[in-house]
Structures
1.
Amino acid sequence: MRVIRQLSTSRRLLQSLIQKQKYQATTYARPHDLILSRGKNAMLYDDVNNKEYIDFTAGIAVTALGHANPQVADIMCKQSQKLIHSSNLYYNEECLKLSENLVEATKSFGGQYDSSRVFLCNSGTEANEAALKFAKRYGILKNPSKQGIISFENSFHGRTIGALSVTSNPKYREPFGSLIPGVEFLNINDELTKLDQQIGSSKDKVAGLIVEPIQGEGGVFPIPLDTLIGLKKICEDNDVIVIYDEIQCGLGRSGKLWAHSYLPKEAHPDIFTTAKALGNGFPIAATITNEKVNSILKVGDHGTTYGGNPLGSAIGNYVVDVIADQKFLDQVVDKGSIITDRLRKLQKRFPEQIKDVRGKGLMIGCDFSEAPSKIVEAARDAGLLIITAGKTTVRFVPALTIENDLLEKGLDIFERAVEKVYN
Ligand SMILES: Cc1ncc(COP(=O)(O)O)c(C=O)c1O
């Protein structure tokens, strides 16, 4: 009797929550009967429907240290009782510590060797906006027509007009008409000689080049190191500022602190951007520059009300301290190998359907011969949340702290979902 009463109460709650969905702007496609209530590390719970899920999405590569991380919760509680926000009219302790922390950890963990300055903001898109403005300013000071940006096919850099202007997907761009002028999309798979010729021929019009060292939304494509090394050389020869967008692939996701930590110092960026994992779910982001870029900036060139607020910065300090640790990074690589080994075995069983397994660390793509929407649905029905990337790829980006047995359990569900769809 009690069970029946509970069931009808939760059905009523579900119906009332579904009713409220009509107030959401029409921008997302979400399953209407999955409503999250809480999480714990790599688990998510829907208490309305009494269901639980292994989460291989981590809020799209955000909750790197797990859902409801107790240390993050403790920092939020303590910092919010001291100071949440004070604006950029004044310095605050946590913001100062985070900027130093990012620069010093970057240099200690093989990232941007000449790392120097940090601009703190609130989202990945905003971090890229700052990077684009800094690069344009650098170019304009050399020559007023040197203000274009080079980006790449298959890239994703965000949704504001500036970030969208350097995002290649026509589906996101075309509904919005004119975007910022002077953006050119090249093909990252072209020979370096061709890229050299393309960039060199427009050097008087190009201020910056933006690239994800591992393309995320486009389908999880790690850019070959030689390509990035070659691109940096071409940009230096043509006085073009190099921006690496590490919003998805940075902060331990690739198995190193930054995806560009795999590169020799000659290929390090002038600017790189980070967001997502930096706040473990709290909105905070950073644009990190060398002195070559910082030296052209003047007071008033850029700003944001919430950037570097004490609450976000305190969380960021904790996240950087945990991830900038060789042992932590090594276990990311080990967990990544568990996924790739199992996916490669699965590929042998389904060679017609699984075309490729690729990625680095815990950013892995499993590429299918068709859109994998039925697999995503079958996995969800069986208790695993996964996301797609590009048109045909399933993306694996779980919390970097996911327990090994949960990882294996999630992979069991994924295998069964593939079997269900293709057997
Ligand atoms: C590589 C990359 N750049 C930029 C962004 C935009 O970040 P945000 O959604 O925080 O604005 C994303 C988000 O998915 C991303 O993956």
Note: The radius of gyration is 22 Å.
2.
Amino acid sequence: MSDAAIRIEGLCKTYRGSKGEPEKQALKGIDLTVPKGSVFGLLGPNGAGKSTLINILAGLVVKSSGRVSIWGFDQDQYPRQSRSAIGVMPQELNLDPFFTPRGALEVQAGLYGVPKSERHSDEILELVGLSDKADVYARTLSGGMRRRLLLAKALVHHPKVLVLDEPTAGVDIELRQMLWTNIRKLNEQGMTIILTTHYLEEAQEMCGEIAIINHGEKIAQDSTANLLGRMDSRTMVIVPDSPVTVLPAAEGVKPALRDDGCLVLHYHNAQTTAEQVLESVRAANIRIRDVRTEEADLEDVFLALTSSRTDDPPADDQDRPRRGMHRVKL
Ligand SMILES: Nc1ncnc2c1ncn2[C@@H]1O[C@H](COP(=O)(O)OP(=O)(O)O)[C@@H](O)[C@H]1O
Ligand SMILES: [Mg+2]
């Protein structure tokens, strides 16, 4: 038996354009293997294709081409087995307002053919902290409670793989804690977890392995430790004594002149020392009035990873990472 929980090969998805819109190639040949037992992070900015990938796994979106197997079951050959191996907490709050949490879980269990004797609705409601709301209509639940219910629904058929699509986007701290506690607990019990997020910090904290996708392509996949090790870019900002006319040139150093006259030098800590950067500045006859270095923030790292590997134009403004937030968004 394969030790991959999920194996994806050459996965493509093109959405047909509606109402005169052009078609959209949301996934452009993704290869991805998720090891059994891992907490795996799928990271990427808005519009990268994360939900499309998740929804294909969940059987909610039909792929255009490629192969997907879940717990060793090819999705096309063994649709029933592959579907029952996975539980998905979707990004959208798609709940029937006229069901109670208990009712929703019973219906879900029925859909997955879980026999009555094997249902654990009360236990699952307890796990997600919804016991006291078990019998109220979903429409009376708060947004946070609806998310809890979505998680509960994903768990009714005891899936081998639990997939959470942006579980913490816009949720309060308490719910976030509950999610992380449950994810850790379920993983310790042997469940493979895949989560998407655009919070790098979050992936860092939770995931042993991370894949980064952008514009429908995988641009990196590695253990979290290795990925962080690669994120060693630095920026040196120099205030020159007089206007800079010649930019410094040194291997591994990318110089740029800012509008305010400061010289900004990007380099990688592992390859280039601050001393070498300074030497290149002196060699260009630039006298230094002031200097400081900045660690790359995660946004820079992400931009560095994406800029060299894609020919696509930059994302729209709304897709652009925002600076200065407490939790750094890609
Ligand atoms: N149903 C759809 N029809 C057409 N385009 C879609 C549809 N769903 C998503 N897209 C487009 O596909 C791309 C990837 O979207 P999505 O998978 O939701 O990304 P993410 O979850 O990473 O934000 C986006 O450009 C989005 O606009
Ligand atoms: Mg999404």
Note: Residues 308-330 have pLDDT under 50 and may be disordered.
